[in-house]
């Protein structure tokens, strides 16, 4: 709270982003919705180059330490939407639970592409999940963050932090405009275990379907909460074993031999 420069920068960026407002870009039969959060993210990135001398290391470090706090406040706000819509959420609980298996899609899609692009065991760390904080901790505990797997998960974590919110916000609005998927389904899909990504996805949907705002935010927040609760166990019991198995198969397919044995943090 002592970094006055940081708070002034944030205030200026928020005011500029809100002044621009929501922009709708027609694409085919639908519309891509650009939200103020997207502008704020881009403007924030533009303040970081050293030659501009706007945001220095201190501002960036302090901003990083405040992300968790602000997301907690955001999730508390979303939590107030869950109670009034609880009967409908309970009715949709099978879909909410089964959708968690969709997290395995990162393995089935990411591992083959990563190996074919030339990555080795970095593929396991980077593709076993969407690489949020619990997944970084899991890989760090099992392999160490200085390992190949650790490099992979940290690389995806950084990319997800910088571009993930922008990507999922655009993806949600694009799918809502150009596919028959129901907005509730897309709201649930936005809850990937990242508060900022969920907010971007749900925010885009709310801008397109304002009459569904309460249900969209409730489904998104509930899905995100479930992803945070069982996502770690999904990674530990299913995603990582599947990643190891698939990595060996794709590696052998490309190189004609099995890969090197994994080295855990304990060295066995």
From TrEMBL:
Pfam families: DUF3100 (PF11299). Coiled coil: none annotated. InterPro entries: DUF3100. Keywords: Membrane, Transmembrane, Transmembrane helix. The chain crosses the membrane at residues 27-48, 60-78, 154-177, 184-209. This is DUF3100 domain-containing protein. It comes from [Clostridium] ultunense Esp. The lineage of its organism: Bacteria, Bacillati, Bacillota, Tissierellia, Tissierellales.
